[in-house]
């Protein structure tokens, strides 16, 4: 159906406004979840006092994000004398813009049936649950924006005119650049399998076949998961802002609203990473027997898909939060070793594996002769073998013994 | 179509001149030097928006929305590019450069060339510019470094830029003669410039380029027709990488000989030790696993 | 300090086996530990609703009290030993001649600045007649500094408040060793 420019513009604006609102709220509540998980893992209870403002209703502490936000807003908007004012202001804005813009290509479900409300004179088409449905290069777009996020970090570090900030910014950019390669390799396997860079297509592929990519690409998942953790600077990869060494890293000199922008952007990065993990490897909105796999679902299936996708993403986020409390942070050289000497070869192995499995003469014939389970078996076998080989040949990335050979070589 | 939207649109068409006049009035009031002036920047913005709305009513600016996006993107890109070469502070130059590249990417998007747009950001704005910033941080941007703050060979650069601009203008003017000014202004799905440029080519090419699956098509072209170019570019980058590693390894070898010659002085503050420390620092970026906690 | 400094002793980290080097088993192990704690019993005490269990209230060092004897008189003999022992100098006593025949002096005023007190328990140790003791009351709050300077009446009222839950040391000793004569209780 052809639409007027106004219809397209209004649909896009409504989606953008809704998504921005949902994501900012989600970031606020994820801060609460993070504090809860941190408390529970340490056998504490976490924030449970703040409820409805001005009443005594506690609501398990669900009012905490409001209090946190108000605290940041009412803090003094302090700008140190020694900073570069323009870039100091620009940096948090740019990182938040990049983080929010990433959501343009992430599907939040599949699509909603047409809405028709005569009272309001409202009549729509099917609504695709993604801001930019016609964007053909979704994954590369996310990739581009994640490289734009480096700007916010390095600008903030430089403009703060502080040695800790600068070191944090430098570390962050080195880390992000290094881990973009395994990240890309983790994505490539999936892209090769479904032949598209559109996240919706990748979802639909897994839904129609009923086999999630994790089932037969565990190695790709491993590489992508580790790289995504590193890209969103979560523990054990939070070197850009490790408190013990760098105070706050690149946002040492920030306070109030600007710091809030940085923190929200960090959480949004994690949310994007979780969405990508779910969509690329865990079937997106698909769950056997619950969501169906037709391309234009009715209300029941459409809402079930939104719910399934959200719950899966939430589960991944909780896993990421658990990871935070399970391992200490890497040393910087270990971080680099892991990226270049472990994750990069593993990613290449996965790419070759997927290519072989999709080659009609090799993988195609094998699947045709022995059944589809051979693909999964081969995937897991190759993962174990590759990890074993990496363990036997590569230097242990987490070796904490002091390196005598640095002094004398 | 939607009744609500139609009503809103009709309202806007009927009354936007009044909205514009109010905006201009408010903006002008804010701009005027009153006894206690405040909000002058807001006033400037408001009055510019109002005047823009008024100007949009003139027939000379038909299709203002479509054209306006293009022109504002172009203006941002060109002014950012100009700022890139004219600013004194190298870090600001880098930021303006990033903005110019973002503008270019947006223009690509606007033409429907999604992959080119995204690739511009990934390749330039991402990788190269971050490396660029590394260099700038080592280049002492705020200190007394006079050599970083002036334009070298300005008398060569300016004529070169002028010549390049002239060549491109002539080439574009000759290369796109088929653009028909009578073409109706844009289908709803694709904005004007994309259609008009695409019309300059043959019709099948248009469909090929504007097809939703153009990524696969582009990939196919890159790895069949332009395979040699891709491979050469890749090899070139590989050579650069090997070269960087070779430099690091060479310096470490020479340091080892120095250490062997003066075993006790290996870690005193000699120039050799300093060089060794620097080598360690560099090698970390080459992925050679050195120590950052020096 | 350089890595080849002879004064450094190098300690080797235990080496990991193949499973450890492959990370995967260790990752599962670590996540299991974290997940177990996620659902385990929480140790936090939700304070105002829930009172913490104090291990042994008799040896806990909380708010002070001034004990009374059997006739309801303050036990203190104004000997100043507690004020002398106090490292924070927070005890202020004015002693006057006692109206009772069993002692020479008694405190006309006895104030403790609870804000200066460090709750070390020295006063309790020093007291020859077990007149001053630290109770197990820990939620010591006030709205002003003046309110936190406890006078004799306040300290005696703390005794009334806590005497049932925490008997005085004299009473404890009497309960443990009934053979001892009551007069020798304070000398322990």
Layout of helices and strands, plus pairs?
The complex is a heterotrimer of chains A (409), B (294) and C (188).
Chain A: H1 5-41, H2 64-74, H3 85-101, E1 111-112, E2 116-117, E3 122-123, E4 127-128, H4 138-159, H5 163-194, H6 199-209, H7 213-216, H8 218-231, H9 243-246, H10 256-281, H11 299-324, H12 332-358, H13 360-370, H14 373-393
Antiparallel strand pairs in A: 1-4, 2-3
Chain B: H1 3-31, H2 40-56, H3 64-86, H4 90-110, H5 114-138, H6 146-149, H7 154-175, H8 192-199, H9 203-210, H10 214-224, H11 227-261, H12 271-285
Chain C: H1 18-21, H2 24-39, E1 64-66, H3 81-85, E2 91-97, E3 105-113, H4 122-126, E4 132-134, E5 149-150, H5 152-162, H6 169-176
Antiparallel strand pairs in C: 1-4, 2-3, 3-5
What does the model show?
The complex is a heterotrimer of chains A (409), B (294) and C (188). With 409 residues, chain A is mainly α. Chain A has helices at residues 5-41, 64-74, 85-101, 138-159, 163-194, 199-209, 213-216, 218-231, 243-246, 256-281, 299-324, 332-358, 360-370, 373-393, and strands at residues 111-112, 116-117, 122-123, 127-128. Chain A folds into 2 domains: 1-63, no CATH class; 75-335, no CATH class. Chain A has 14 helices and 4 strands. Chain A has a two-stranded antiparallel sheet. A two-stranded antiparallel ribbon of chain A has the order 2-3. In chain A, strand 2 and strand 3 (122-123) form a beta hairpin. In chain A, helix 1 packs across helix 2 (64-74). Chain B is mostly helical and 294 residues long. The N and C termini of chain B lie far apart (67 Å). Among the domains of chain B are: 12-61; 63-149, Four Helix Bundle (Hemerythrin (Met), subunit A) (Up-down Bundle), CATH 1.20.120; 228-285. Chain C is an alpha+beta fold and 188 residues long. Chain C is built from 6 helices and 5 strands. Chain C has helices at 18-21, 24-39, 81-85, 122-126, 152-162, 169-176, and strands at 64-66, 91-97, 105-113, 132-134, 149-150. The chains are: A mainly alpha (409), B mainly alpha (294), C alpha+beta (188). The interface between A and C is medium-sized, with 30 and 27 residues.
């Amino acid at each position: 159906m052809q639409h007027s420019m106004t219809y397209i513009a209004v649909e896009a604006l409504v989606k953008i406004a809704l998504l921005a609102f949902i994501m900012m709220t989600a970031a606020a509540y994820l801060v609460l979840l993070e504090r809860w998980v941190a408390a529970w893992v340490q056998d504490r209870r976490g924030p449970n006092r703040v409820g409805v403002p001005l009443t005594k209703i506690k609501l398990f502490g669900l009012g905490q994000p409001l209090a946190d936000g108000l605290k940041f807003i009412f803090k003094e908007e302090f700008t140190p004398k020694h900073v570069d004012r323009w870039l100091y202001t620009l940096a948090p804005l740019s990182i938040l813009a990049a983080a929010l813009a990433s959501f343009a290509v992430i599907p939040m479900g599949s699509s909603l049936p047409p809405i028709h409300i005569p009272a309001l004179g409202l009549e729509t088409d099917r609504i695709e649950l993604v801001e930019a449905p016609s964007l053909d290069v979704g994954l590369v777009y996310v990739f581009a924006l994640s490289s734009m996020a480096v700007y916010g970090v390095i600008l903030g570090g430089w403009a703060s005119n502080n040695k800790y900030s600068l070191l944090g910014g430098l570390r962050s950019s080195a880390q992000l650049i290094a881990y973009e390669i395994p990240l890309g390799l983790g994505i490539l396997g999936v892209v090769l399998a479904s032949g598209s860079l559109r996240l919706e297509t990748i979802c639909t592929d897994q839904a129609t076949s009923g086999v999630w990519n994790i089932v037969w690409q565990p190695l790709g998942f491993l590489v992508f998961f580790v790289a995504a953790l590193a890209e969103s600077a979560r523990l054990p990869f939070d070197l850009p802002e490790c408190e013990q060494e760098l105070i706050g890293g690149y946002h040492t000199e920030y306070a109030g609203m600007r710091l809030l922008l940085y923190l929200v952007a960090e959480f949004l990065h994690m949310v994007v990473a979780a969405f990508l993990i779910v969509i690329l490897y865990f079937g997106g909105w698909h769950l056997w027997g619950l969501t169906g796999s037709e391309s234009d679902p009715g209300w029941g299936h459409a809402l079930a898909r939104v719910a399934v996708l959200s719950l899966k993403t939430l589960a991944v986020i909780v896993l990421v939060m658990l990871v935070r409390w399970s391992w200490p942070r890497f040393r910087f050289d270990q971080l680099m070793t892991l990226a270049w000497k472990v994750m990069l070869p593993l990613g290449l192995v996965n790419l070759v594996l997927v290519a072989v499995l999709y080659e009609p003469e090799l993988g195609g014939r094998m699947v045709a002769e022995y059944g589809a389970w051979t693909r999964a078996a081969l995937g897991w076998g190759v993962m174990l073998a590759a990890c074993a080989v990496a363990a036997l040949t590569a230097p242990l990335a987490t070796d904490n013994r002091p390196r005598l050979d640095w002094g004398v070589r | 179509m939607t009744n609500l939207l139609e009503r809103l649109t009709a309202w806007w068409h009927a009354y936007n001149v009044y909205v514009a006049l109010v905006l201009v009035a408010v903006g002008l009031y804010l701009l005027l030097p009153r006894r206690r002036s405040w909000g002058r920047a807001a006033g400037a913005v408001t009055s510019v928006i109002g005047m823009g709305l008024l100007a949009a009513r003139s027939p000379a600016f038909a299709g203002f929305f479509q054209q306006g996006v293009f022109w504002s993107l172009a203006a941002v890109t060109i002014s950012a590019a100009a700022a890139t070469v004219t600013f004194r502070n190298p870090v600001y130059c880098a930021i303006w450069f990033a903005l110019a590249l973002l503008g270019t990417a947006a223009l690509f998007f606007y033409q429907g060339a999604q992959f080119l747009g995204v690739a511009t950001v990934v390749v330039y704005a991402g990788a190269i510019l971050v490396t660029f910033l590394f260099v700038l941080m080592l280049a002492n941007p705020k200190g007394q470094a006079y050599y970083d703050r002036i334009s070298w060979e300005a008398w060569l650069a300016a004529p070169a830029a002028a010549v390049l601009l002239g060549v491109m203008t002539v080439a574009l003017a000759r290369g796109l003669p088929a653009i028909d000014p009578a073409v109706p202004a844009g289908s709803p799905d694709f904005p004007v410039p994309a259609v008009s440029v695409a019309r300059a080519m043959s019709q099948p090419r248009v469909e090929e380029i504007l097809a939703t699956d153009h990524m696969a098509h582009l990939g196919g072209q890159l790895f069949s027709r332009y395979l040699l170019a891709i491979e050469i570019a890749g090899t070139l980058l590989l050579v650069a990488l090997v070269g960087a590693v070779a430099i690091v390894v060479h310096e470490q070898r020479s340091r080892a000989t120095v250490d062997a010659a003066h075993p006790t002085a290996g870690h005193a503050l000699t120039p050799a030790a300093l060089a060794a420390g620097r080598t360690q620092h560099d090698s970390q970026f080459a992925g050679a696993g050195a120590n950052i906690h020096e | 300090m350089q890595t080849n400094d002879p004064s450094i002793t190098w300690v080797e980290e235990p080496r990991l086996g193949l499973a450890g080097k492959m990370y995967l088993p260790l990752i599962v192990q670590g996540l299991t530990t974290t997940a177990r704690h996620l659902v385990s019993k929480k140790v936090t005490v939700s304070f105002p609703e829930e009172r913490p269990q104090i291990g042994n209230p008799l040896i806990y060092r909380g708010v002070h009290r001034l004990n009374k004897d059997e006739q309801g008189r303050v036990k203190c003999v104004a000997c100043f030993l507690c004020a002398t022992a106090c490292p924070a100098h927070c005890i202020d006593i004015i002693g006057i001649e006692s109206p009772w025949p069993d002692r020479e002096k008694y405190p006309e005023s006895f104030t403790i600045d609870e804000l200066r007190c460090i709750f070390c328990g020295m006063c309790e140790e020093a007291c020859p007649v077990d007149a001053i003791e630290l109770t197990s009351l820990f939620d010591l709050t006030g709205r002003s500094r003046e309110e936190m300077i406890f006078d004799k009446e306040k300290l005696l009222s703390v005794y009334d408040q806590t005497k049932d839950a925490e008997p005085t040391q004299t009473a404890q000793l009497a309960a443990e060793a009934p053979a001892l004569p009551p007069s020798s209780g304070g000398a322990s």
